[in-house]
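SAMPLE LOG
Freezer: B-3
Tube label: C17
Construct: single chain, 251 aa
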Amino acid sequence: MDKIVIENLSLQYADGTESLRGVSLRIPENSISVLFGPAGGGKSTLLRCINRLNDLTEVKASSGRILIDGENVLDPQTDVIALRRKVGMVFARPVVLPLTIRQNLTYSLELAGEKRKSKLDEAVERSLRLAALFEEVKDRLDEPAIAISGGQQQRLCLARSLALQPEIILLDEPTSGLDPISTGKVEAALQELKKEYTIVLVPHSVQQAARTADFASFFLQGELVEYGEGKTIFTAPREKRTEDYVTGRFG
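STRUCTURE (predicted):
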């Protein structure tokens, strides 16, 4: 079943750059859907459209629809705060709050009105376990989050988005600054998380795309060139441009 349906989405920024051109795409639930291609292809723009982060940028024109569970999230009447609780996002660089590890996870829950210590403690452990971080930090929860490694900080950012129990997780090159071991831990966590969540990932390399994708979409200069099952896209793509990129002939 499709969790997200994108219909004829186009977007042009105020500086005249066209980031997306007539993109239509279906993203199945409980899967990892990868958006890959050269820089400037529109991948991050598409991610930011899904949870309306593009509202914060200078957009000249946009058209099309993004349906989540049948509701058009681009409708002006959409409750954007509720949308961003439903659709979590993790960025390339981990940005931890200047608080303890525990407070990084409870902060947004407390803002949302949760005051019960038992519920907060439960959410901390649950989200850290889902992000494959609990065993590493369970004795350090009251230490500053900035004190843990970069790879641990990135998984803490993932745990922070999970604490709000979203339905969809968007990840924009979440391992681009990490070492191979930390990258492997994040990727392993994503494989477990897809059992409960719908994951949309912009990977930092073609190799990561091939390793993680249940479904893959190749973007080039704002155009969706090809979409399909990951194993097909990376072994027998239909489009020559996809094949050239996957085999390293350009990009």
